[in-house]
Amino acid sequence: MPTAEPLVAAAAALSKEELLRDYRLGWESRQASLAGRKEVFMGKAKFGIFGDGKELPQLAMARAFQPGDFRSGYYRDQTFMFAAGELSLQQYFAQLYAHPDAEAEPATAGRAMNGHFATRLLDEDGNFRNLAELKNSSADVSPTASQMPRLVGLAYASKLYRNNPELSELKQFSVNGNEVAFGTIGNASTSEGMFFEAINAAGVLQIPMLVSVWDDHYGISVPAEYQTTKQSISEILAGFQRNAPGEQGFEIFVVKGWDYPALVDTYLRAAEVCRREHVPVLVHVTEVTQPQGHSTSGSHERYKSKERLSWEEEHDCLRKMREWLLSEGHASAEELDQIESETKDVVKKARVAAWDAFFNPIKEERDEAVTLLEKLVAETGQENALHDMVEHLRHNPTPIRADIVRTVRRALRFVRETRSGARRNLQNYLEQVLAENADRYNSYLYSQSEQAALNIAEVPAEFAPNAPQVDGREVLQACFEANFRRDPTIFAIGEDVGRIGDVNQAFAGLQDKFGELRVTDTGIRECTIVGQGIGAALRGLRPITEIQYLDYLLYAIQILSDDVACLQYRTKGGQKAPLIVRTRGHRLEGVWHSGSPIGMILSSIRGMHVLVPRDMTQAAGFYNTLLRSDEPALVIECLNGYRLKERIPQNVGEFTLPLGVPEILQEGTDITVVTYGSMCRIVQDAARQLAEVGISVEVIDVQSLLPFDVQHLIADSLRKTSRVLFADEDVPGGATAYMLQHVLDEQQAYRFLDSQPRCLAAQPHRPPYGSDGDYFSKPNAEDVFDAVYELMQEADPKRFPAIY
C-alpha cells in the first residue's frame, strides 16, 4: 500500500505565512481543548471531549477540503472545523456551555454536547442553501461508527451527480460530482460492524469517500491489541487496495500523525485521486496522541504506562511541528513562542465572550423573575418559604433557566389561593418563558417549513368508471413510474430492487425504463442501505431505500434512530434528510418473516413519520405525499397485499393522502375497533360476523401512526359508540398501548366510555412457521369477534349470553 512519500513540490508550495497560520490554528485549537477541560472542572459545562493531539492531521485534511465537499466525522474534529472556516472559537465555547441559540451555536443550538459539529445546510425557511459553494459538515452523532453509513451516501451522491445527466442542472448541490465526502473515525471505532460494512459498500460502489482513521492506539482504556487484528486497520484492509489504476478497490495511505509535511502531501494526493477518479481512499494516521485523555470523565494516567505517557509527550504533534519549522528554517524560536503566547489570549477572549453571551441573558431573565416574585413577597410577608425561595434565586451566582422556572412554579403553588395582580403577572411570565424554552429545547422534531408533510395538500384519488382490477403491486409500480418521470432526483436502492424489480415486483421494469442509477440493486447491508439514503438526501436527492422485510429493519434501527430521525431536532432546523424507507411486514409466516415490532419502531424513530397503509393504493397516496415533502418516513406495506386486487387511480402519481388522518372503513354504533395495516381486513371480517349477532362495529383504520389522528376522529367515534377495542399484531403493550394512550390520555376520550377499553395484540413471542403458527400467534377474526362480544356481554348479558 502507498505510504506518505514526500512530494517536495506540494510541501514546498506552502508559504511561510501558510505554515505559521497552520501552527497558530493548531495552538489555538490546543488551547481551546485545555481551556475547555478547565471549564468543565469549574462547573461551567457538564462534560467535555476534545480534539487535542489530532491537530496536524486535521490541518492537513482541511487543505484538501474544497467548497462543495462534505464531512461526516466524529467529536474530535475541532481543528479541522477551525481550519475549514466553519467553526469559530467563540462558537466552540458556546457549544461547550450548551448555548441554545442557533446564531451563537450554529451546529446544534446547544442540543448536543461539545465536539458535535455541523454546518447549516438550510436557510431560515428550511430550503437548501447553495451547497456547492459551501464547505459542508453533516451533523455529528455520538454512537461509535454511526457516521460511516451516512458517509457512504454523501459520497454516493457525487457519483449520481456525475453520471446522471438528468441531474446536471442542479448546480446548487454539485459541480459534476467533483465533491469528496471526508469521513473521520477513531481507531477503536473501526471495530464496529458499521465501519466494515461502509468500507465494503464504498469499495463496491467506487465512490469519492475519503476516510481518515485517527489512531492513538486506544479506545478509552482499551489498547489496540484488544481492538484490532494485527493492531492495524490498514494492514487488515490491505486486500481492499486496488492493484492498478482503473481497477475496483481502495487507495490506502499510512502516515504518522506528527509528520506535518507528509500529512499535507498525503491528503493532497488522497483527495486528488478520490475527486478525479471516484476511488475511495483510506488514510490511516498512526502515532496520534491524546494529551488530555479520552474526556473529562477520567484520567488516562490510570491505564497508560509511564513509558507510554512519556512517548506521547515526546511525539506530541505540535511539538514535532515546532521542531520541523525550526529545523527547516521556516521560523525562529522567538516567532513560535510569540504565536503560542498569543493563542492563549485569543482563546481566553473567545471563551469569555462566549460565556457572557450565554450567561448574561439568563441573568436578565433571573432578574426579571425576581422583580415579579418580590411583588408576591410584598403581599405575603418576609417570614415564609416564598421569601426564602426568592432570596435563594436572587443570590444564585450561576443560575440556569431551570432554576428560574422551578422557583416561579413553586412560588405560584405557594400562593395558589391568592388572587392578585402580582400573581397574574407571574403567571403570564411563566407562560412566556415556557413558550420560549419550548422553542429552545423542544422545537424542530419535524420540519417547520412549507414543505412539511402535514402541509402537503390532499388530492383525492380519481378512478375511471371501468377501471380494471389489478394486482396491488401494479398500483405501486404505476405510482413509482409516474414519480420517477416527474422528478429526476428520485432513485431507489435495495436488495433485489433493480433487475427483478424487488421481491414483490413493485419496481418491475423500472430499471429498464430509467436506468441502473435510478433503480439499483445493493448487497445485503441494511444499515448502509439506509445510510446511503441519508447521505444522498442531505445533498438534495430523494432516495427510496428498501428494507426487504420489516424484521430486517433491526439492522438499521440504530442509524434511523440516532441519525435521520433526530437530524432536524439536533440541528434545530439546520439540516434535513427527506429519506423514505420502504419495507413490508405483518401476516407472513415464520419467526423472521412475520414481524410487527411497531412499538419498538414508534419509540425509536420519533422525528420520522411511520405510515401503515392497509393496501397498495393507500401506500401510493402516502408515497406521493412524502415525495413532495421534506421529511423522512418509514412506510410499512402489507406483505400479503401485493396480489390482492385493487383499481389503479387515473391520477396514480398525483393523488395524495394526508398524514395523521384515520379512515372509517365501516360505520357502527355499538363499539369502535381501531386498527391498521393487514389487521384491517381481519377486523372487517369479524365486523361482518358480529353484525350477524346484532353488534354494530365501527372500524377505523388509523393509517398513520406517526403522526397519529391529529384531528381526534377516534374520540369522535367513541362519543358515539362508548366502547373501544384497539387491535394489532404487535406484542402486548406495544402499538396497542400506544394507540390507547393517544386516544384516552391525549384525546381524553375516556370521558365517553361506558366499558373498560380493551387491547387485542399478538402473543408475546414471534410467530412460528405455518398457517397454524400464524393463526394461534396473531389476532384472527375469531379473536376479534370474541373480544368485542365479551365487551357487549358485560353491557347487556341478557341480549348477549356467554358463548363459552
TrEMBL record:
Key words, A-Z: Oxidoreductase, Thiamine pyrophosphate
Signal sequence, start to end: none
Pfam families associated with the record: E1_dh, Transket_pyr, Transketolase_C
Cofactor(s) this protein requires: thiamine diphosphate
Domain Transketolase-like pyrimidine-binding: 470-644
Keyword Hydrolase: no
Alphabetized Gene3D superfamilies for the sequence: 3.40.50.920, 3.40.50.970
InterPro entries per record: DH_E1, THDP-binding, Transketo_C/PFOR_II, Transketolase-like_Pyr-bd, Transketolase_C
UniProt GO molecular function: oxidoreductase activity, acting on the aldehyde or oxo group of donors, disulfide as acceptor
Protein's job: E1 component of the 2-oxoglutarate dehydrogenase (OGDH) complex which catalyzes the decarboxylation of 2-oxoglutarate, the first step in the conversion of 2-oxoglutarate to succinyl-CoA and CO(2).
Name assigned to this protein: Transketolase
Organism: Hymenobacter elongatus
Taxonomy of the source species: Bacteria, Pseudomonadati, Bacteroidota, Cytophagia, Cytophagales
